[in-house]
Amino acid sequence: MTNYKYVYGSVPSRRMGLSVGISPIPKKWCNYSCIYCQLGRTKNLTNKREIYFELDDILKEFKNYMKENIEFDVVTIVGEGEPTLYLKLGDLIEGLKKLTNKPIAVITNGSLLYDETLRKELNKADIVLPSLDAWNEEIFKKINRPHGSIKFDEMIKGLMKFSKDYSGELWIETMIVKDINDKEEDYLQLKAILDMIDYDRLYINTPVRPPAENYVEQPSEESLKKAIEILRGISIDKLVSEGFYSEEKDDYEAITSIIKRHPMNQYEIKSFLASRKCEKIDDIINKLENDNKIEVINYKNYKTYRLK
Ligand code: SF4
Question: Is 2 inside a domain boundary?
Fold first, then answer.
């Protein structure tokens, strides 16, 4: 079994089917520190684009991954921080395109779209998924806690500009957090901004995984319904996950290789193990509970497991 540093998965994406992740950024390097971030608080808040890792090393790894004939539907550049901070993002997208015919997606917080160079680089991707949670500077600071050099108006202008020129699929994702951006007024104001952006889909998300700040709560069902109605978005929570995948033969190793990058809750683990016809599901869950390399977080009746 090959040990990968930049490539992981494939994991099911509720939006894109089986997704192979490419991470060109070190863990928790970001220009936001969102209150709902499932990675915890940002450790390195930076707005400087850098070559964090050698492009050739990332591409070489993906080449090796392709040799394993693992099934996937999409390659997603996502990282455990903000992938647009990777200075060679454009070259990375081009390099990946030479190695696969599958679509290349980039999940981004969208903050750097005010930078024309980055907009050009992202033009090469097939799907771009930027976030948009706030409709003014005040909420922006509250929910995304951006780097001091990022201004709400510039971020929005960048997103608008990008949307006009981009020929791929633009899927915006909005995270709704109780008492932060979950009032009718918030949805109406956000809709007014969205009306100025040419996007293809809008996904509405809620904090289902343990957030960076414990005061983060999900909006009520009623408020979520209102958001879907006003924003005309698709609720991610209602999409069905296709099941996880790991090339590891050993069931326990398979789980740990996934939760290294993608936290799983007890239901996801159980259905994943059942799909592999594992007969010792409870034993594996017990082992996870007692493994000191693994963090078990209780959140909204979900026990989420992730590698420390
Ligand atoms: S932009 Fe993404 S990685 Fe960065 S803090 Fe927000 S949720 Fe976390």
Answer: no
Quote the ligand 1 centre to 275 CA distance (angstroms): 31
Q: Rounded to 10 degrees, what is the CA torsion of 233, 138, 165, 188? A: 40
Q: Is 108 in the pocket of ligand 1 (CB under 6 A)?
A: no
Specify the number of domains making up the chain: 2
Q: With a cut of 80, say whether residue 242 has pLDDT above it.
A: no
**Residue-wise pLDDT tens digits, 123-181:** 999 999 999 999 999 999 999 999 999 999 999 999 999 999 998 889 999 999 999 99
Query: Is it the case that residue 39 has pLDDT exceeding 80?
Result: yes
Residue 2 has pLDDT above 80, yes or no: no
Residue 249 lies in a domain: no
Q: Is the Cβ atom of 93 under 6 angstroms away from ligand 1?
A: no
Q: Are residue 42 and residue 177 in the same domain, yes or no?
A: yes
CA 26 – ligand 1 centroid, Å? 13
Ligand 1: which of 34, 86, 177 to mutate, judged by most atoms within 8 Å of the beta carbon? 34
- Assess whether the C-beta atom of 29 lies below 6 angstroms from ligand 1: no
Mean pLDDT of 99-115: 95
The answer, yes or no, to whether any atom of ligand 1 lies below 6 A from the CB of 39, is: yes
pTM for the whole thing? 0.81
Q: Is residue 206 part of a domain?
A: yes
Please give the residue range of the domain that contains residue 89: 7-242
Between the CA of 16 and the centroid of ligand 1 the distance, in Å, is 19
Say if residue 88 is in the same domain as residue 173: yes
Q: CB of 114 closer than 6 A to ligand 1?
A: no
**Average pLDDT over all residues of the chain:** 90
Residues 145 and 118 in one domain: yes
